[in-house]
Amino acid sequence: MAEQKKMVDDITAMDVDFAKWYTDVIKKAELVDYSSVKGCMIIRPYGYAIWENIQKDLDARFKALGHENVYMPLLIPESLLQREKDHVEGFAPEVAWVTHGGENKLTERLCIRPTSETLFCEHYKDIIHSYRDLPKLYNQWCNVMRWEKTTRPFLRTSEFLWQEGHTMHATEEEAREETLQMLHCYEDFYRDTLAIPAVVGQKTEKEKFAGAQATYTIEPMMHNGVALQGGTSHYFGDGFAKAFDITFTDRDNKLKHPHQTSWGVSTRMIGAIIMTHGDDNGLVLPPKIAPVQVVIVPIAMHKPGVLDKANELLASLRTKYRVKLDDSDNSPGWKFSEYEMKGVPLRLEIGPKDIEKNQCVLVRRDNREKQFVSLDNLDEAIEAALEALHQALYEKAKANLVSKTFTARTHEEFLDIAKNHPGFIRAMWCGCTECEEQLKEETGGVKSRCIPFEEEQVSDVCVCCGKPAKHMVVWGRQY
Ligand SMILES: [Zn+2]
């Protein structure tokens, strides 16, 4: 018990210092380590296993919708990056450049990809000629680099892992449909796999992606009321296609430019999981992406038959779940807190008395609820417990989102909420970038998250300038 207490004491309590809590958890749960290059992170096996589970789930969703994976080069020639004006202006401040090959200065600088629109376009120019070549539904899993000033593991790093989908379509309608389809694909994934609710909608002109005509976003709220942009989907129109001279001959024999989309999610999602579900004992992982779903902790391990039984359970459960048996000589108390820290959804305890009664103990990570289960019904009990846990995590996160969402009808109300209540603010907006900038300035960082799909006319005038309102916007601070 003393050991167990010590480990938990090592984490800063969430309510005392949320940022410190986050740093403690990612270190103690062995998700990442810092590297010698500022802003780059070492993703340790336990953290990487979470990413692999995320990847596996999303990849299956993308493929079910007809997408194919490709791999593009890491480097982009400067002239290629500059082809689309808005795009290069948007990314220029955070691009890292390769200037030398060995000892020799390159005749043209090469940028390390911050995103790969330009590379895909160059390739699409070569392979798209006819309407028969469309749509092209490509996706890439890779790393990208954006030279960030302030960084935090998972949330904002100079190098990160992601997927970027880039698709080309014969018509605007089809491309717009794809843009929204992929946004909803992310929304489903967040809800059904990560147990994270979110506000979804369209970014304002000011916040949209460099070069896009429309950007859609999924915005979950972290435990402390701060937003995390969880994934974006962009409609590009034919802007890039024109800049890269991509054309195809349509059914009517006319030469046309195809319409383009891109969409991506990254290792930031791991930050969202930690900050949505975690508690003062460490990580709490949604079962579907947990590297270990059930940890078996033998009690009185030295007693005859205990380890044999534990191994027997491991062998039978492993066919269906990701299971670990910890038969190390650490005390059960140490193991309990270790796997709580690591957010393992279920702990299975088995000792001599349980074996006598043909039962074991299941303990849920989220609420520590203890359940005696007959070994004859173990599989069903585990399945039900994991499902209940997923649902409970979702409900808890949803309650947090609802309780920290406020409505502002006047300028004063807006400033008061921004100052005193961490969370999202629903307020009307006239459509002017100036008002967005003013509100951000006055509040020290509250920005428009999106114009949600579910709008409500909470008043008739802009919360900033008092002119007639065009939209309801959800506002909030962000990571
Ligand atoms: Zn206004």
TrEMBL record:
Its EC number is 6.1.1.15. It catalyses: tRNA(Pro) + L-proline + ATP = L-prolyl-tRNA(Pro) + AMP + diphosphate. Pfam families: HGTP_anticodon, ProRS-C_1, tRNA-synt_2b. Transmembrane segments: none annotated. Its main location: cytoplasm. GO terms for cellular component: aminoacyl-tRNA synthetase multienzyme complex; cytoplasm. It is found in: Cytoplasm. GO terms for molecular function: ATP binding; catalytic activity, acting on a protein; proline-tRNA ligase activity; transferase activity. Residues 44-286 form the Aminoacyl-transfer RNA synthetases class-II family profile domain. It is an enzyme of class 6 (ligase). Keywords: Aminoacyl-tRNA synthetase, ATP-binding, Cytoplasm, Ligase, Nucleotide-binding, Protein biosynthesis. NCBIfam families: proS_fam_I. Belongs to the class-II aminoacyl-tRNA synthetase family. ProS type 3 subfamily. Catalyzes the attachment of proline to tRNA(Pro) in a two-step reaction: proline is first activated by ATP to form Pro-AMP and then transferred to the acceptor end of tRNA(Pro). Consists of three domains: the N-terminal catalytic domain, the anticodon-binding domain and the C-terminal extension. This is Proline--tRNA ligase. It comes from Merdimmobilis hominis.
